[in-house]
Amino acid sequence: MLKYNKEVIFMPLEQKKQYTVEDIYALPDGVRAELIDGEMYMTAPPGLTHQRLVHFFDRVIGNYIQNKSGDCEVFPAPFAVFLNNDDKLYVEPDISVICDKSKLDEKGCHGGPDWVIEVVSPSSRPMDYLKKLVKYQTAGVREYWIVDPMRNLVTVYRFNTEEYSIQYSFTDEIPVGIYDSDLKIRIKTE
After folding, report:
1. Residue stretches of the chain with pLDDT short of 70
2. What is the C-alpha to C-alpha distance for residues 102 and 38, in angstroms, rounded to an integer?
3. Rounded to 5 degrees, what are φ and ψ at 42?
4. Computed from CA positions of residues 138, 141, 142, 145, in that sequence, does the dihedral angle turn out positive or negative?
5. What secondary structure does DSSP assign to the chain, as a single string?
6. What is the Cα–Cα distance from 185 to 170, expressed in whole angstroms?
7. What is the share, in percent, of the chain residues with pLDDT greater than 90?
8. Would you state the pLDDT for residue 103?
9. Which residues pair with 43 in a beta bridge?
10. Which of 50, 66, 69, 177 has minimal Cβ neighbours within 10 Å of its Cβ?
């Protein structure tokens, strides 16, 4: 309603639609999106370099867990992670490592995974470096890696340590904090 007099103008504010997990599940087959604070973000199909990196991490981490008879499990995207106990936050990290089996059910992971890896693409840069960083930290993720193939750089966040963030190149041996440096990963050996 718009009323005008010499003193006050009243206008309704435009209401932005708040999406829920139900809206994510209602998307057509093959269409992927993530949900942060009720705002839906469509995800583009990943490129070749992205997929090679996701496969590399899935294989290396999975082999390590298997060889150590570990309790953790590794899940590549698409894998549903419900970070909060609400229907306004749904993400699909490129790699999720979950050690607490009570967080898992047929729908995915409920709560923060122990370790999350996101492979940056040009369209996901602000999401991975800003929005998801905050959401993962507040959800109790212990370690978060942002893998940037355009810069050959890995930014490692260990949220529960004094060394909050460290940058590595693809040629460095990167220690995995959730395994007390027993696992080190070098992305490029060339």
Report:
1. 1-15, 181, 189-190
2. 26
3. -75, 145
4. negative
5. --EE-SS-EE-PPPPPPPP-HHHHHTSPTT-EEEEETTEEEEEPPP-HHHHHHHHHHHHHHHHHHHHTT-S-EEEESS--EE-SSSSS-BB--SEEEE--GGGEETTEEES--SEEEEE--TTTHHIIIIIHHHHHHHTT-SEEEEEETTTTEEEEEETTSS--EEEEETTSPEE-GGGTTS-EE-S---
6. 9
7. 76
8. 96
9. 32
10. 69
Do the Cβ atoms of 183 and 159 come closer than 8 Å?
A: no
148 within 8 A of 155, measured Cβ to Cβ: yes
What are 15's two structure tokens? Answer: 């209401």
Distance CA 81, CA 107 (A): 9
**Interatomic CA distance for residues 30 and 49, integer angstroms:** 20
For the chain, report the end-to-end CA distance as a whole number of angstroms.
Answer: 66
The tokens describing 159, both together, are 């949220």
Reading the block at residue 83, the tokens are 């970070």
